[in-house]
Amino acid sequence: MAFLNLQNVSKSYGVNGRRQEILRDVNLEVQNGEFVAIVGFSGAGKTTLISLIAGLIRPDEGKVTLSGSEIIKPGPDRGIVFQNYSLLPWLTVFENIFLAVEQCFPDWSATKKSTHTEKYIAMVNLTAARDKRPRELSGGMRQRVSVARALAMDPQILLLDEPLSALDALTRATLQDEISRIWSEDKKTVVMITNDPDEAIYLADRIVPLTAGPGATLGPSFAVEIPRPRDRQAINHDPHFKKLRREISGFMLNSKGERQTAVTKKLILPDIEPENLNLPRMNWRKTPLRRSEIKEETVK
Amino acid sequence: MNETAATSIPIAGNETSSVAPKRPVATKPERLDWPRKMISAIAPPLISFAIFLFVWSQIAGHVKVSFGSIPGPLAVWKQAEVLWNDHWIERQKEAQFYSELAKRRADFLAKNPGESFPDVKYAGPPTYFDQICTSLETVFTGFFIGSLIAVPAGILCGLSRPIHNALNPFIQIFKPVSPLAWLPIVMILVSALYNPPHPWFEKAFLTSAITVAMCSLWPTLINTALGVASIDKDYLNVARVLKLGWWKQIWKIILPATLPYIFTGLRLSLGVGWMVLIAAEMLAQNPGLGKFVWDMFQNGSSQTLAQIMVAVFTIGIIGFALDRLMLLLQRLVSYDAKGI
Which of B102, B141, B157, B249 is the most exposed place for a label (fewest CB within 10 A)? Predict the structure, then answer.
């Protein structure tokens, strides 16, 4: 059985009348030590998917298991890097990470906890900013603190929820390199969510596209067979890269296209019938009634 | 020439002046800028204060009341000086009393060794400054009691919908109740329940403090509840991922995240408390500023009005100072420095 397993997972939000299905029948298997990227459009339910794996929400149907046991609630065995960093603004970089370390390894001595914290601050190159508060850091630095916090918990699996989407292109590239380096150092299982196919190909072993929502589901896997370490410049000319990119983009655009055709439109047609002035009118109603026609049509 | 065009206000319809050149405002060196800023910050309040004093002094002489005319600014200032001097005279008397007492005690003990000398306290009237101190003590005691109730209750309200729904009717009903309505109830309860052989506090003090607490806890409670309810969900997710315990979650996440709200509430509370205190002291006869005003009103001497006006200014200035103090604390403790 796979390390992380999602079986027929569905999730809807909202009350009965306006219930909207976000994820439908999602199946995913992730092997130990694998780097999987899930690529999807914004609003497709990517964050819902990662929240399900993290245990922040429960699926309506189906089951999420990590090394055989079902995920019921969040825990430090699944380190999550939130999209908007989620650092505590009243704590310094050190304190933010230390809080996580303290919570995960309560039996350690104080010195061991601090050295462990320092180690991960150094790993993301933030030793100089150790005592700064998140407000004083740039977006990229904040995201690195967030990554360090997740790694310092020594989780079985690292969940990255669009970790780089809020950053500018240059910072993004630097952090991609950094994530790649850190991953190659300790080969943790990683599930990364992204909206950028290039980023996914550069970082992941396997890419799973998420179809457009609502009722999104996972498409077929695309294995990335580009040897590591990958070179950002050279990769652009790699025929495999080009092929993958074309296939993934093609699949995603197709899924979006299919969705759009199933839209039911409600049209209010203008009333073009001439007014009948002979009809008696109630005197308080100054304007005559118009019969606008509401037409419903489903375009396939 | 250019400068006058740039600084003049464009007049509607006047084409030539409204098409002022859109170049950036001439940047003058900063050292020339700051005195002007200082003047524009200080001059208007000074001028308005001068106008206020002038109008007051003009009106004062013309309004006759039962004991002469309304005092002008100078008379009030003179009374402030009188109160100040009284304070030091009283202090001198007190010191003299105690030094004489010590002498008598020594004489007594020398003549009758082994016997105890009765413990006598100076019984002079409290001076104006003693009364200010009593008022401050009372308001801080009441404020402290109120906050001790309001902050935890607010956190619980913010955390749990059912608790919020349970407490909300009480908050809504008791919040608008005037201190004057609470006071008799508190007075009766205090005199019924608080009868220790060696009281730590006087009853009047306790009555005023509890009344202040009753009236001042609402803004803190409501603000704390609001703060807790509007905590960023991400922080709570962090707490869930880290599996923080209930206490640790309160202590490490909820309290720091809510601190700016709590301090806004505390600041409002202290303001309300100070306002309530004067009324409470008048009726409870707690030896503070409120009692001072009441006593002055009762004795009806020719200095009455002037001394009450001194009290009014004192109350105002202390209230302002307390507000600034809370603002300072708020800025010190809150992580979000946007307020600065």
Answer: B102
Q: Minimum mean pLDDT among A11-15, A117-121, B1-5, B137-141: which range?
A: B1-5
Torsion of CA B55, B58, B60, B63, to 10 degrees: -110
List beta partners, residue A80: A159
Strand A61-66 relative to strand A189-194, pairing = unpaired
**Encoded tokens for B230:** 């509007």
Contact between B335 and A135 using a beta-carbon 8 Å cutoff: yes
H/E stretch holding A82 reads none
Give B-chain residues touching A74 at CB under 8 angstroms: 237, 240-241, 243
Q: Residue A277: exposed, middle, or buried by beta-carbon count in 10 A (0-12, 13-18, 19+)?
A: exposed
Which segments of chain A does DSSP mark as H helices, in order? 46-54, 93-104, 110-123, 139-152, 169-186, 197-203, 232-235, 239-261
Neighbours of B127 (CB within 10 A): 20
Q: What are the backbone dihedrals phi and psi of residue A292, each rounded to the nearest 5 degrees, phi first?
A: -80, 140
Residue whose pair of structure tokens reads 């409870």 in the numeric block: B284
Residue B4 pLDDT exceeds 90:
no
Altogether, the residues listed in chain A come to a count of: 300
**Which of B232, B241, B330 should one mutate to test binding to chain A, selecting the residue with the greatest count of A CBs within 10 A?**
B241
Q: Spell out which residues of chain A touch residue B243, defining contact as CB-CB under 8 Å.
A: 74-76, 103
Q: What is the pLDDT of residues B250-289, one digit of tens each?
A: 998 999 899 889 999 999 999 999 999 988 888 888 888 9
Q: Which two tokens mark B62?
A: 């013309």
Burial of residue A227 (CB within 10 Å: 0-12, 13-18, 19+) is exposed
Q: Does A86 touch chain B (CB under 8 A)?
A: yes
**CB contact residues (below 8 A), chain A span 142-161, against chain B:** 153
Nearest to B335 among A76, A90, A100 (CB): A90
Q: Which of A15, A100, A157 is nearest to B242 (CA)?
A: A100
Dmax (CA) of chain A: 94
Yes or no, beta carbons of A76 and B253 under 8 Å apart? no
Contacting residues of A for B239, CB less than 8 Å apart: none
Chain A from 58 to 77: CB within 8 A of any B CB: 73-76
Entry pTM: 0.75
Q: Chain A to chain B, count of Cβ pairs less than 8 Å apart?
A: 50
Read off the pLDDT of residues A156-200 as tens digits, 9 standing for 90 and up: 899 998 888 878 888 888 888 888 888 888 788 999 998 888 888
CB pair distance less than 8 Å for A88 and B259 = no
CB-neighbour burial class of residue B69 (10 A; exposed 0-12, middle 13-18, buried 19+): middle
The answer to whether the complex's ipTM is over 0.90 is: no
